[in-house]
Write a structure and sequence with these properties.
Number of domains: 2
CATH superfamily of the largest domain: HUPs
Number of helices: 17
Catalytic activity: L-aspartate + L-glutamine + ATP + H2O = L-asparagine + L-glutamate + AMP + diphosphate + H(+)
GO molecular function, one term: ATP binding
Pfam families: Asn_synthase, GATase_7
Largest sheet: 6 strands, antiparallel
Shape: globular
Helix content: 25-40%
CATH class of the largest domain: Alpha Beta
EC number: 6.3.5.4
Strand order of the largest sheet: 2-3-1-9-8-10
Strand content: 15-25%
Structural class: alpha+beta
Enzyme class: ligase
């Protein structure tokens, strides 16, 4: 992923000092895009870009333009349907200067305009800022992808200028107020504010009145939708691989990618052998399971080890890059951060990962207690809407810290539409019917003739990433945090048990007394269900000590990048 910074409507537009300052702030994003930098000043506006070159490394530098440079855009993202859009735009008379997938944005805007729904035509993940200088005026718009896979923030300077950036660290010195740019929205200087461009049926504003989907479950349709989502993310001109924890989600990503590459139908010039990567403490559950999956799929597997002390030593850097104190995010970001550095050292610039499946299918262990299919569906909706604060943020920023891009096929717009249209009765955990969490996804890939995965991997119990890399990681981090207290000022969300939303805590009266975001907090919920079906090796929980009631503090304003230290209470 790249890094973008836009400064719009500066009072001192002609100042060379202003240009130097924008360049200085843009350099704070250089880790996101180490391959090239670009800056364009248009009247009282600046667009800067730090590029990670994945598509067309030779000529796709940004900002990008339309034919006469009257429309200019800076983009962080990938547009997977760019070839189709490019063909349509060429038929309409547009010409292109680069092979960049992002160049279509300027031409789509020129063709359809801000109100023409062109943002919804983009199949991919993106954050962009666009300037339109036609007709002697200057207007701008910005947009963020449907779920918020790419990070984006917006702020306002004391002189009335608007600042938009991929990360907060480029804004906090210059903005008197800034906040998260909401996913699925666009911001228009012409309209003077935000509007939502992504309006799927599941998003509904009134939660109580939301319609529960009723589409019958079709395993083959679901499988094909996911295969398409993975295959389109193999679009690359640089070396790539998959993150493989040995859990269901990452293993399915690897299985689909490996099959596609082996068939020789991918356009990439990097061969048909898939590289896979896993990280964990010595002897951790993930390392063992990932090795078995890699052997089954025939990938070139890379296994990285870290110690609890390695993780603790990295926490300050992890907080700086992820820009959050959220407990589960930091716990899971740290091993991902360490692994990303190793992956980049191997020359790999893009990886495909399994984030989003648990939110869509109710894969977290607390979903065993969902009281009805309606509430089950509402909780999946709540989880999807909040993903940009948690797993999307982690996957993007922990990898981008080292100039590595993570792609997430479970959050493909078309796949989400398919999966969120299924009657949630099929997603419910039903031990009496042999259905464990994410049963609809497991069943879709349960192919007896040509198995995607070994059966026990396909039906492996849910393991949160921060648990699966090694249980002593969480225990060691808790002990460290307990002896190094620090303030929590920017924690999104509220109380949680096993990654639930605050609302889902109402499902079980006992949960309010055990507000632990670790997946192990829900072991008691599902243990008896698993014992009816299979033998599972579940380690004993350690002592967490006395808990304090967490505070819910909404993330809208931030004074500075997080300082060193991390308090591990609350979420």
């Amino acid at each position: 992923m790249c890094g973008i910074l836009a400064v719009l409507g500066c009072a001192d537009e002609s100042s060379q000092a202003k240009r130097a300052r924008v360049l200085e702030l843009s350099r704070r994003l250089k880790h996101r895009g180490p391959d090239w930098s670009g800056l364009r000043q248009v009247r009282d506006c600046y667009l800067s870009h730090q590029r990670l070159a994945i598509i067309d490394p030779a000529s796709g530098d940004q900002p990008l333009y339309n034919e006469d440079h009257s429309v200019v855009v800076t983009v962080n993202g990938e547009i997977y349907n760019h070839e189709q859009l490019r063909s349509q735009l060429a038929d309409a008379g547009h010409t292109f200067r680069t092979g960049s997938d992002c160049e279509v944005i300027a031409h789509l805007y020129e063709e359809h305009g801000e109100e023409g729904g062109f943002v919804d035509m983009l199949d991919g993940v993106f954050s962009f800022v666009l300037l339109d200088t036609r007709g002697g005026r200057t207007s701008f718009m910005a947009a963020r992808d449907a779920i918020g896979v790419t990070p984006l923030y917006i702020g306002w300077g004391i002189d009335g200028s608007v600042w938009i950036s991929s990360e907060m660290k480029a804004l906090h010195d210059e903005c008197e107020h800034f906040e998260i740019f909401p996913p699925g929205h666009l911001y228009s200087s012409t309209a003077g504010g935000f509007s939502r461009w992504y309006n799927p049926p599941w998003y509904g504003g009134d939660e109580a009145a939301a319609i529960t989907p009723s589409l019958p479950y079709d395993p083959l349709t679901l499988r094909k939708a996911f295969e398409k989502a993975v295959i389109k993310r193999l679009m690359t001109d640089v070396p790539f691989g998959v993150l493989l924890s040995g859990g269901l989600d990452s293993s399915l990503v690897a299985a689909v990618a490996a099959r596609h590459l082996a068939a020789g139908t991918n356009s990439s010039s990097w061969g048909t052998k898939l590289h896979s990567f896993c990280v964990g403490l010595e002897g951790s559950p993930d390392l063992k399971a990932a090795r078995e999956v890699a052997d089954h799929l025939g990938t070139l597997h890379h296994e990285f080890h870290f110690t609890v002390q390695d993780g603790i030593d990295a926490v300050e850097d992890v907080i700086y890059h992820t820009e959050t104190y959220d407990v589960t995010t930091i716990r899971a970001s740290t091993p991902m951060f360490l692994m990303s550095r190793k992956i980049k050292a191997l020359g790999v610039k893009m990886v495909i990962s399994g984030e989003g499946s648990d939110e869509i299918f109710g894969g977290y262990l607390y979903f065993h207690k969902a009281p009805s299919k309606e509430e089950f569906h509402r909780e999946t909706c709540r989880k999807l809407k909040a993903l940009h604060l948690y797993d999307c943020l982690r996957a993007n920023k922990a990898t981008s810290a080292w100039g590595l891009e993570a792609r997430v096929p479970f959050l493909d717009k078309a796949f989400i539409h398919e999966a969120m249209s299924i009657d949630p009765e099929w997603k419910m955990v039903r031990p009496d019917l042999g259905r464990i969490e994410k049963w609809v996804l497991r069943k879709a890939f349960d192919d007896e003739e040509q198995p995607f995965l070994p059966k026990h991997i396909l039906y492996r119990q849910k393991e949160q990433f921060s648990d699966g890399v090694g249980y002593s990681w969480i225990d060691g981090l808790k002990a460290h945090a307990a002896s190094n207290k620090s303030a929590i000022l920017t924690v999104p969300g509220g109380p949680s048990v096993a990654c639930s939303t605050a609302k889902a805590i109402e499902w079980d009266a006992q949960w309010s007394a055990n507000l632990d975001p670790s997946g192990r907090a829900a072991l008691g919920v599902h243990l008896s269900a698993y014992q009816q079906q299979q033998s599972v090796d579940i380690p004993a929980r350690g002592s967490d000590g006395k808990k304090k009631k967490p505070r819910a503090i909404k993330v809208v304003e931030h004074a500075a990048p997080p300082p060193a230290g991390l308090a591990m209470e609350g979420r």
